[in-house]
Amino acid sequence: MVGESTARNAKHIHLIGICGTAMASLAGMLQGQGHRVTGSDAAAYPPMSDQLRAMGIEPMQPYDAAHLEPAPDLVVIGNAISRGNVELEAVLDRRVPFTSMAALIHDEFLRGRESLVVTGTHGKTTTTSMLAWIYEVASRKVPALAPSFLIGGVAENFGNSFAVRETRPFLLEGDEYDTAFFDKGPKFLHYFPDAAILTHVEFDHADIYKDLDQVKTAFKRLVNLIPRRGRLVAFDGSENVSECVAKAFCPVERYGFKEASFWRLMDFQAGAVSRWKLMRQGEFFAELELPMAGEHNALNASAAAALAAGQGLDAASIAEALKTFRSVKRRLEVRAEIDGITVIDDFAHHPTAIRETLRALRGSYPGRRLIAVLEPRSNTLRRNVFERELIESLAIADRVILAEVYQSENIPVDERLHPAAVVGALNLAGVPAQLLADADAISAALAPELQRGDVVAILSNGGFGDIYNKLPRAIEVSSSLKAS
Description:
With 484 residues, the protein is α/β, with parallel strands linked by helices. The chain has 3 domains: 12-103, NAD(P)-binding Rossmann-like Domain (Rossmann fold), CATH 3.40.50.720; 112-324, Mur-like, catalytic domain (UDP-N-acetylmuramoyl-L-alanine:D-glutamate ligase), CATH 3.40.1190.10; 333-483, Protein-Tyrosine Phosphatase, Chain A (Alpha-Beta Complex), CATH 3.90.190.20. The protein contains 14 helices and 22 strands. The strands form 4 sheets. The protein has a 10-stranded mixed sheet, with helices on both faces. Helix 12 (419-428) links the parallel strand 20 (399-403) and strand 21. Residues 1-6 have low confidence and may be disordered. InterPro entries: Mpl, Mur-like_cat_sf, Mur_ligase_C, Mur_ligase_C_dom_sf, Mur_ligase_cen, Mur_ligase_N, MurCDEF_pg_biosynth.
């Protein structure tokens, strides 16, 4: 049980790939247990590098077998680490005990807990953050509801991506990506949920899943782990979700905009602040307000509200929490506002996510020119499997700039996304588009053409060459030159 670690049984635990969102969170959780934590990565970048340093853990860069001297008691292998990594090879050669992040979370933190897992192709991080904040607000009345949580991003309400308390609820973002080089099953299968949310099911992670059927099989296996006494809250606007929950042994509560939805969103009002009524089996449950744009975020909030209500949390606490929800780092995060130009950072990994992000920005900034700047970085976006859908999503913007595919040499040529083809198709469709090499080229070319009122959406699931700082600096320089 959490809190039982002492100096007597504390270990030295080393994390290979420590700057991943979940791995950095695990580092903090283990440190809180009294363990000595070290870790390494190829490169450290915010927000997780900042979180690690705030905890006094300096990521070792780059990977080096010397980081394992003297040998730690246990090594956690990140799921991005493959054979050939110098530290992994040293672990195997020296027979240092090792495990995966997901397995260690189960063994060290979930025993004796109530495991509540948020999963799905889209919206996991935001929905888990919403659920954690709902529990936090509810715990002001009922202290036993204070949540432990593990989120794949920094939740603004907490300023952190994790918390470990002595109470029973443990809220986890459940990722369908594989666990480690030695465990190719999804991470979420280690979390054994007592109740869960399933937001959406689409083909994603094209590097490990062959097709949509394989993705659906993964989610079906998770559903099959929920006990009969548990509950599953599932989106009702997706046939893929319907297929995945069809054989659940637990009660299934569907949510969405349909008249027959168990949890139904009604009278939705779009804008920078979203408002709607949430109905439960046709009866009024709550009037909800969320300081975020987009139907997708209202759906995420409704899913979190539904799971919390089913676990006994009151409607007033749920409504108060959503009204005061402050989003997640890198989810529609405003990074700069300079001379009327707004620069927004959003974690983009899939054409559907890009589409919903751009739609939400249209609602938040009506009448303003929207420029999308995309780095194809995720294992799905780097491939051509969704090239048509990507073009359709980007066409929502008024202007598009694409960077070259991140580490394109690692993708077979016949599978690789061709940004020039995407740019050509957008231009043919009447959406001005341009291909530029990297963050430096984009910042230099884009900053001088920006005008007051423009909204720039930077879309990437990685560091993107530090464009989040380079572009604002370039805008400041350009604005100074225009003013002189």
